[in-house]
Specification:
2 copies of one chain form a homodimer. Chain A is α/β, with parallel strands linked by helices. Chain A has 2 domains: 156 residues, Rossmann fold, CATH 3.40.50; 112 residues, Rossmann fold (3-Layer(aba) Sandwich). The first copy, chain A, contains 12 helices and 10 strands. In chain A, the strands form 2 sheets. Chain A has a 6-stranded parallel sheet with strand order 4-3-1-2-9-10, with helices on both faces. In chain A, strands 6-5-7-8 form a 4-stranded parallel sheet, with helices on both faces. In chain A, helix 2 packs across helix 12. The first copy, chain A, is globular, with a radius of gyration of 18 Å. Chains A and B meet through helix 2, helix 5, helix 7, helix 8 and helix 12 of A and helix 2, helix 5, helix 7, helix 8 and helix 12 of B.
Amino acid sequence: MSRSKNDAARPIGVFDSGMGGLTVLRALHELLPGENIIYFGDTARVPYGTKGEKTVRAFASQDAGLLVDLGVKMVVVACNTASAFALEHLRETIDVPVLGVINPGVRTALAETRGGAVGVIGTSGTIRSGRYQEGLKGGGLGPDRILVQECPLFVPLVEEGMMGHAMTVMAVEEYLRPLRDAGVDTLILGCTHYPAMKEDIGRFMGPEVNLVDSADALAAAAQDRLGELGLLHGGDDRREGELEFYLSDIPWKFQEIGARFLGKPIHEVNTVGLDEMEEAGDHND
Amino acid sequence: MSRSKNDAARPIGVFDSGMGGLTVLRALHELLPGENIIYFGDTARVPYGTKGEKTVRAFASQDAGLLVDLGVKMVVVACNTASAFALEHLRETIDVPVLGVINPGVRTALAETRGGAVGVIGTSGTIRSGRYQEGLKGGGLGPDRILVQECPLFVPLVEEGMMGHAMTVMAVEEYLRPLRDAGVDTLILGCTHYPAMKEDIGRFMGPEVNLVDSADALAAAAQDRLGELGLLHGGDDRREGELEFYLSDIPWKFQEIGARFLGKPIHEVNTVGLDEMEEAGDHND
């Protein structure tokens, strides 16, 4: 594949702390089937959501650097925590457009709320960064219409495939009861893992509550931005874009977890060593 | 503090994937109060238990290298997963004695079992490595007397401080029922996090089941080994040894999680950057 600077055929790069961002890759591929996409999951250092701002920014720099080295035309930050802590830094340091997951989610929530409160659930890092809260405030919501909740057990429950299990039902009740009681009408699923438990969350919150899956919102934003830049690819022929997968570790339950997020098995994976990660970080510090 | 090669005053180095290994530091400090001890927790890349063998070995090399650079007289691998995958490699590549957590736990279990089965619970990595199983077989147990169980939700439950919570009770029942039903009389808590939920585990398994906390067994092994080498320190005067803490990330719930494992607050922490980790790995590859 030719990867000269102005070539729309260059791939879109997507990175995440681990495998959860495959939901974003899936949404992108469904919306833009002609695009070539490279996915990088930092499975050796997952999760990001419990870790400090400086650490997440350093990791995100390496992740994005790796994708830039692979010749991508755009970097999509699928990870909410990395979007919260590193988006501005990445925009300042790398020379392709960088899209984060927070603003698209905020815009969708603002469009869907019917006058009630908007809830945001995410990792400790995402919630404590305050970025969703700032975005919603910037869109005109008063503080009484913004409710946030850290849900640290959701990621391990999803990784263990425990959707629908009594433990997941209990965790959903415990974390989400304050949001439901406060009359939230729109709930942002602010972590790539959470859409996998949409049914459990929807059952508890009730059918009248909008669940905002950032993956769809982010894919739409990528389409808009590529269109503006004249970099959309594959609209004419019917050839399906290539998907390439890079991971920094092959986790024990790789096949199982991969299929859970991507919706189909991953056949071929490139692994990226520690030394390559370090080099990738060098050129955008 | 003087750190010449043969000086018993040199510190003991303890490393873990994160904060769980503070239980090992605590056991060491209680047994050997005169020893200076340096703790390194790789909080930027925690957990190790879900990650592949090669990745864990690379991380453990950097962790141990960092401690050697700080002048330790012995490296104690508090992390079960790192002990499972990296102990032999570390012994071949660094020039101070290296102690892992698996053999001391196996010896204690073999001494305590009363003819029933021995159970081992741990992370996916630890259980799938087969090291505990090999050790127990080597000690004469037949395969029908060895039962193992991965308990991937225990670590996040402990990190969230959910000991005694209904979700923890449910997870304990789900993971441990097969072991209890099979007549396990001795259960190895094969992860540094699990001793924090000893009460939940003990309540379900019953008072007649021995729970083997590897931290105590490991501290005793360190004492024996330092004695053999003539490197015990602080037996004469009553001065308490110094404890130093290094972490690769300051997690969001640092104070809370630290106190949970150490039993008291940590006042001063040194942080180790990504670049320093990489350099530490260089000299023992």
